[in-house]
Amino acid sequence: MNQEIFVIVEKSISFFVNILETYKPDMILTQYVGENISNLLLYRIAKKMGIKIIMPVSMFIHNQILVSENIVGSEINDGFKKIIKNYEDSSQNYTEDYVKEQNFSQTLKIQASCNPNISSLSQKINHYFKRLSNNPEPIYKNVGKTKLNMIKYRIQLYLEIKKRKKFLDSNSIKNIEDNNFLLFPMQSEPEAKILTLSPYYSNQITLIENIAKSIPINMILYVKEHPIQKTKLWRSVNDYKRIISIPNVKLVHPSVYSQELISKSKGVILISGGTGFEALFHKKPIILFSDEIYEELSMVTKVTTFDKLHEDINNAIKNYKFNQKELNALMEIINEKSISIPYYSIMKDGVTLSSIHRREQNFDLTWKHFQMFYKTYEKYFEVFAKSVYSKF
Question: For 147, how many CA atoms within 13 A lie in the half-sphere containing its CB?
Fold first, then answer.
């Protein structure tokens, strides 16, 4: 199996190298890198060849993105470090009300509702009938597929997802029962940031075990499942059982409002992501394992080794001091360097648009929908294009 994977990766690398050497692009525009192996390979190869590659990076504010030259969006950290020494503006008072209004969960809902195939029951029946009536495309991912095992797989998958969801609903809490807890928001898996930016923390259950051993003895660790995990078929029942079995740990249902959890917690400990950003506005200490756009703030403790985890957590809680100027400086840089466009809505509708042609094989119908799509988002395409051109 490993050898087969290496062969595929090697061929992908050769393909990208050949394309880049042949066409010599000045710039590559891609989706956020790491969502699949192909665009991660392209990113690494382009960087090695000195080709500029840019992508949209989420700012954890609804409809706010940074057009960046790297996975982390380090332009924000660089900008923050440049202005913070002499920064004195405390006129703006960012509070939890701000982050509630700009709630990043709205973005997550759009991502979770994205369906790259079809939505109605009749379309699904028609889609699978066509798939079963025709032979699979002669590509690698279809090797070994037969019509019978496709049917069996779909039935087994449906039953497995239903079982996972039932277990999660029955064994996770939906009410906040404690007032002395730390919050650990799980990353969805597979997920770009934990695979590319924090590979040493990619085993989240092991990480939870280590955190649970390191928090103050009188504290509880609330572990919240990520709502996007629904689109990734939930985790296995065994994974949920392992989390529940850890002493001092309670599994929280993904439907629980994150803002309420943050507000009532003593702090947030996380690999990366928007929950840490939101915790800044709730004036809560943040313990962070990976690289993030807000890591330079004094309210954030960056973990470097498990040996010091207990010490880092205790210091973050006991010595926490909210710094309004730092938060204002961070927001000033974010507002200066990012753009406001409904990026995930555009992506969602773009995926739907592409599925129309795959499903209907009707150019006129596809063209009609494309014109509607372009008209809806035309002004945002212009904003995005200006930001991209500014990188030349």
Answer: 8
For residue 116, give every residue at least 6 positions away whose Cβ sits within 8 Å of its Cβ, in sequence order, or none: 351, 354, 355
| pTM for this prediction | 0.89
Q: What's residue 148's pLDDT?
A: 80
- Contact indicator for 231, 167 with CB cutoff of 8 Å: no
The two structure tokens encoding residue 29: 């525009």
For residue 321, how many other CB atoms are within 10 A of its CB?
8
**How many C-beta atoms lie closer than 10 Å to residue 388's C-beta?**
14
Burial (Cβ within 10 Å: 0-12, 13-18, ≥19) of residue 42? buried
User: DSSP letters along 150-217, please?
Assistant: HHHHHHHHHHHHHHHHHHHHHHSB-S---SSEEEEEPPPSS-HHHHHT-GGG--HHHHHHHHHHHS-T
Give me the CATH topology for the region 170-337.
Answer: Rossmann fold (3.40.50)
Q: Which residues contact 291 (CB under 8 A, 6 or more apart)?
A: 72, 197, 198, 272
| E strand residue ranges, 231-317 | 249-252, 268-270, 286-288, 300-302
Domain boundaries of the chain, sorted by first residue: 121-166, 170-337, 341-392
Digit-coded pLDDT (tens) for 121-176: 566 666 666 666 666 666 666 777 777 887 888 889 999 999 999 999 999 999 99
Q: Is 133 helix (H, G, I), strand (E, B) or coil?
A: helix
User: Average per-residue pLDDT in the chain?
Assistant: 88
- Sign of the dihedral defined by the CA atoms of residues 184, 284, 311, 76, in that order: positive
Strand residues in 40-137 grouped as ranges (E) = 52-58, 64-68
